[in-house]
Design goal:
alpha/beta; FAD/NAD(P)-binding domain; 2 domains; 10 helices; five-stranded parallel sheet; 31% helix; 26% strand; binds flavin-adenine dinucleotide
């Protein structure tokens, strides 16, 4: 029996588990390593915050999916690799031996986030940590003059701001004030002009302040210190800055790019260790792609095929990630913006479109 270890139950690995459930890989024992028994689907997280979904609507039951795939489920995090001994080191202290290893562990919170984040901030990743802390934040928002600062101005930060504002309005917390702090002059840098313009308009219409062109340097009790020397008052601070690579792949000796993401070839194999595969945000493709759930999802089916092929001694096939991805960004109140390349559209129907795509994704992999 060959040992295949899947580390992380990310967007690509759920496809691999579904492929295994449909047809097991011959003579292969599969183990899934994940710190949580469920994966919370980030695409629906803002909808959960806004109150549009129950948490079960946005959760993929990894342990159950592993069961259907005939895979052993080990609830722990991978903390390092011994590539000579072919073993995964786990936070539980266990070492798991493998012949082939596939990594879809996603990004980690950006280590360059402001000082004081651990003590005074609430980072969006790990998502499970945020989900556990959210009810407390909602309760705190009932206090008079509540002020929430969101550090970040990318798609995740903006979507969270809209979702939180929508939820506050639904709960009658109209006294609460939201401020987005971002280093770019405008939010959603890199997205089409029309999308940015619409988002800025909607932020203003919903009373969400945007402080652009300023980096948050330090989170302090009740304040955020900015790089222009000013401070803004904040009773709670959410940190939604960019995604970064975990340290352990590079520390284990895998070839990585300068940011620490695992370099892979067109067959999604590590460029330094071909018995290791990587997909999703943790992988660095030769022809680089944005870190996005869309590309992680698309990597799943070709990854499943190549894992099957290598375990069964067959020829692997190259795969080319698509050039463009559709971005759907909800702005609360069941309204959404869409971008495809340089084009952008918006409307309540775009939200229904996104809702349908997200619900189908969850339904595909079982509750
Ligand atoms: C609020 C928010 C909204 C977003 N909305 C969208 C969107 O609408 N569309 C879009 O394309 N992108 C969106 N993104 C980005 C998207 O979340 C990521 O690009 C996507 O999750 C990457 O998928 P992945 O499979 O690489 O990793 P993930 O989805 O992060 O999955 C990784 C899995 O591995 C597990 N794991 C982590 N570390 C370890 C470890 N050491 N050992 C074992 N397991 C581990 C995690 O628990 C998780 O289950 C959003 C991000 C956020 C924060």
């Amino acid at each position: 029996m060959k040992q295949l270890v899947l580390a992380g139950g990310g967007h690509a690995h759920v496809h691999v588990l579904a492929a295994l459930a449909a047809a097991p890989f011959a003579d292969t024992q599969v183990t899934l390593v994940s710190p949580y028994p469920c994966q919370i689907y980030s695409g629906m997280l803002p909808g959960w915050i806004a109150g549009h979904y129950a948490i079960e609507d946005c959760s993929l039951a990894l342990a159950a999916l592993a069961g259907r795939a005939g895979a052993r489920f080990v609830q722990t995090a991978c903390t390092g690799l011994d590539l000579d001994a072919k073993q995964v080191r786990c936070a539980s202290g266990e070492n798991i031996a493998f012949d082939y290893l596939s990594l879809d562990t996603g990004p980690v919170a950006d280590p360059s986030q402001p000082t004081g984040t651990a003590a005074h901030g609430l980072p969006i990743r790990p998502i499970e940590g945020f989900v556990a802390a959210w009810p407390g934040l909602l309760e705190k928002a009932r206090q008079d003059d509540f002020k929430l600062a969101i550090v970040g101005d990318g798609a995740a930060a903006v979507e969270l701001a809209f979702a939180i504002q929508t939820r506050f309005a639904a709960e009658g917390l109209n006294h609460a004030r939201l401020t987005l702090v971002g280093s770019n002059p405008q939010p959603l840098a890199g997205f089409p002009f029309l999308m940015r313009r619409k988002a800025i308009m909607l932020l203003a219409a919903q009373g969400i302040e945007h402080l652009g062109g300023r980096r948050a340097l330090a989170l302090l009790p009740g304040h955020v210190r900015l790089d222009d020397g000013s401070e803004i008052a904040a009773d709670a601070i959410l940190v939604a800055t960019g995604a970064a690579a975990p340290e352990w792949p590079a520390a284990s000796g895998l070839a990585t790019d300068e940011a620490g993401f695992i370099r892979v070839n067109a067959k999604q194999q590590s460029r330094s260790h071909p018995f290791v595969f990587a997909a999703g945000d943790v992988a660095a493709y030769a022809d680089s792609r944005p870190k996005s759930g869309v590309f992680a999802v698309r990597a799943g089916p070709p990854l499943a095929e190549n894992l099957r092929a290598i375990c069964q001694g067959q020829t692997l096939k190259p795969w080319q990630p698509q050039k463009r991805a559709l971005y759907l960004l909800s702005t609360g109140r069941k309204y959404a913006l869409a971008a495809w390349g340089g084009f952008s559209i918006s409307g309540a129907w775009v939200w229904r479109w996104k809702d349908g795509i997200d619900r189908r994704f969850i339904a595909q992999f079982g509750a």
